[in-house]
Amino acid sequence: MRGVIDNDEVMHVARLARLALREDEIEPMARELSAVLDHIARIGELDLDDVAPTSHVVELTGALRADEPRPCLPREVALAQAPAVSEGGFQVPSPQR
Amino acid sequence: MLELSALAAADAIRDGVLSGSELFEAYRERAAADAAAGESGLNCFTWVAEQAPSGEPREGPLGGLPLAVKDLFCTEGVPSQAGSRILEGYLPPYTATAVRRLTDAGASVLAKTNQDEFAMGSSNENSGYGPVRNPWDRARVPGGSSGGSAAAVAGGLAPWALGTDTGGSIRQPAALCGIVGLKPTYGAVSRYGMIAFASSLDQAGPLTRNVADAALALAQMVGRDDRDATSLEYPHAVAQPSAERLDGLRLGVPEELTGEGIEAGVREAFAAALACAEALGASVESVRLPHAPHALSAYYVIAPAECSSNLARFDGVRYGMRAEADDLLEMYTRTRHDGFGAEVKRRIMLGTYALSSGYYDAYYGRAQRVRTKISEDFRAAFEQVDLILTPTAPTVAFALGEKTGDPLAMYLNDFCTVPMSLAGVPAISIPCGLSAGLPVGLQIVGPAFSENRLLDAAHALEGALAFDGSAARV
Prior knowledge:
The structure holds 2 protein chains of 2 kinds. Chain A is mostly helical. Chain A has helices at 7-16, 23-40, 75-79, and strands at 85-86, 89-90. Chain A has a domain at 1-45: Orthogonal Bundle (Histone, subunit A), CATH 1.10.20. Chain A has a two-stranded antiparallel sheet. By secondary structure, chain B is of the alpha/beta class. Chain B folds into 2 domains: 6-249 and 450-472, Amidase signature (AS) domain (Amidase signature (AS) enzymes); 293-366, no CATH class. In chain B, 36% of the residues lie in helices and 13% in strands. Chain B has 14 helices and 11 strands. Chain B has an 11-stranded mixed sheet, with helices on both faces. The longest helix of chain B is centred in the last third of the chain and has 24 residues, at 361-384. At the A-B interface, α1 and α2 of A face α8, α9, α10, α11 and α12 of B.
């Protein structure tokens, strides 16, 4: 397991996370993430080969409700908090310049 | 009337000797004064009701009792910002189930409480709305992430409050502010309407002045909710605690969470609480939680991984702030850069990295296996003892700014509370004494759905410890 993340990897992960970083934010982010990842790397010392991963902490069966139509939010309520609205939908900038 | 516990106030309202609306107004004035004081107050509220609810007195067992609610619970028509600037002014179109159940039982929402942004933090210094101050010493943190709820209750600005706990966010601030905080069994309370941080860990619970009030709130909150597929029917009624003795109860003390890393003053108060439990008739013995020291590492993979997914929804499209941009991708990335605070960005980055191609098995996969081992540790320990006791936090409240420069040092505050979150088991923090004039929390942990036993033991210990929190009242 790697413990250190460099500036290039920070930029790659920021792109995956849709997060802009200023030039002066990249190096501190790399340093802080590396310190945390170093600590986390300790779980690499454990022998976990025959251990099943946890998917849910309590026994749960029949969690699905009946699939019946219910009223949903009225359109104007769903749009009420949007930064920009157009023709009954959420307005966003063009995907391309 | 401000000295009454929630339970005593509810009784007085029902008996007709106290008016629910007068009680609400008395708290509302105090809360509004703190909100108006800004930096010179506790800064524990992000919104305070402008007036007492009008009309008929509220029906139900809580008969008009005012309730402070952590900012991240959606409350219809009331700002619900999760402590983040990216949600500044957001007015949800619906109310969280946990809040709805309490208001259906007669509680009235008094205020929304300040918190670490999206519940990520252990000091409340990560709020987009400024840090909360500890009413015991205003130069110190109240703990987090439910720091506003804890400070409001400890300071006597609200009779009780709702919080959420992902890795200790109810228990740790309760400990640092000298009040009671209960994290229920995962699934006991619906998460519907809680602005999500880490969905497999998040759980709502009460912060209260005493154990009986925690039981009163929990009794109204539990139960299956169609809108949260991870919620469960609580298997029995939540009872009011009544125990005054602990005869025959077997208590376990895990060496992994009570030795190294716990400061001396906290260890002393903890030892005194153990002696108190023995005097009440309990037996105290050593138990092992061999994987507990790895819980923090597993937690700081799993929680950021889930947060990186949950917080993808904040993109400037449907609600919240939007940064001006020429194209869609730039709008996403700039909105998230400008709207999220430093700690939230750090965790999104950490989680995205841990889930990214090539690292998933080494981080997330391993962390989920560690989680299994931690659950097995608790199951084995609970075959030996009825309940487990630890300090809630390794230190008392620390100074504002003391740990903000070192994320890892901040994360270590969660050392004693994270294992229970990973295992999904219930835990309560009660104040057990002072160290250098600051409160120390005692954490009591039980198996899943053992809240009644947990509350009874906490009640007996509370009576014997006789902690006095009046010095924190504003």
